[in-house]
Design a protein that fits this description.
Layout: H1 6-10, E1 15-17, E2 23-25, E3 29-30, E4 35-36, E5 41-42, E6 46-48, E7 53-54, E8 59-62, E9 81-83, E10 88-89, E11 94-96, E12 99-101, E13 106-107, E14 112-113, E15 118-119, E16 124-125, E17 130-131, E18 136-137, E19 142-143, E20 148-149, E21 154-155, E22 160-161, E23 166-167, H2 173-176, E24 189-190, E25 195-196, E26 201-202, E27 207-208, E28 213-214, E29 219-220, E30 228-231, E31 236-240, H3 243-253
Parallel strand pairs: 2-5, 3-6, 4-7, 5-8, 6-9, 7-10, 8-11, 9-12, 10-13, 11-14, 12-15, 13-16, 14-17, 15-18, 16-19, 17-20, 18-21, 19-22, 21-24, 22-25, 23-26, 24-27, 25-28, 26-29, 28-30
Antiparallel strand pairs: 1-2, 30-31
Length: about 260
Amino acid sequence: MADSDPIAALRDLRFDRLPTGAAVADGARVDPSAFVAPSATLYPGVEVEARSIVLDGAVLGRIPISNGTTNRPVVSEFSRVRVGAGSIVGCNSVLYTDVELGPRVLLGDLASLREGCRVGEGSVVGRGVMVLANCRIGAYCRVQDQAHLVGDCVLEDHVFVGMGVITSNDNEIYLSRFGIRGAPQRGPVIRRLAVVGSAATLLPNVEIGEGALVGAGAVVTRSVAPWTVVTGVPARSRGPVSDRWREQVVERAARPPASRDPR
């Protein structure tokens, strides 16, 4: 599959200005109750829903553009971008095309979400987080500053990812960097209620089980069983999550989430 032509997608763009001065392309829509800062740019297909805030320098709906040497095919076409009601998009953050933020998502300054990403209701994606193509982040997740979520990574609901966590999706990089196909690879899957500590590294194809706890700085080379604590390089089991912690976490996650007054 050949890369599509970005010039064809960009050549005929036309922008209007909101009263704030933000640049809004034909085909983008901003709810009257939303706020879009003066230096923000909205490309075709972007929908900013009620009571959302898009701050200075944010770019919404950017198409991916290849220089012709990338291994992954790139489609440089505009499609839908949704910023759910009550969401906040931080300064100088970038949402590529085909991205959806659910209601009340907080996206920190300088964060980047590549094409095909989905973020569930009430989640927080911190400052400078990189979320690569086709990631899925569930509801009420917390992804701390400077984390890196590789393409096709999956976070189920109520997952916590600490600062500086690194994920990867290619154990065959020796071959694949030259376009030589190796064994099938995928990004890590982190099941609901799991916690990944700061600066941990998750290697390709691993699954972090429900409620598991990965210690800070661990290197996870194999899947982690549910409700298990792992630490070290490489990560090894240190026993189960305590029954008391497990009961508290499950009970708290089942409660209705706190909400911000939408008026």
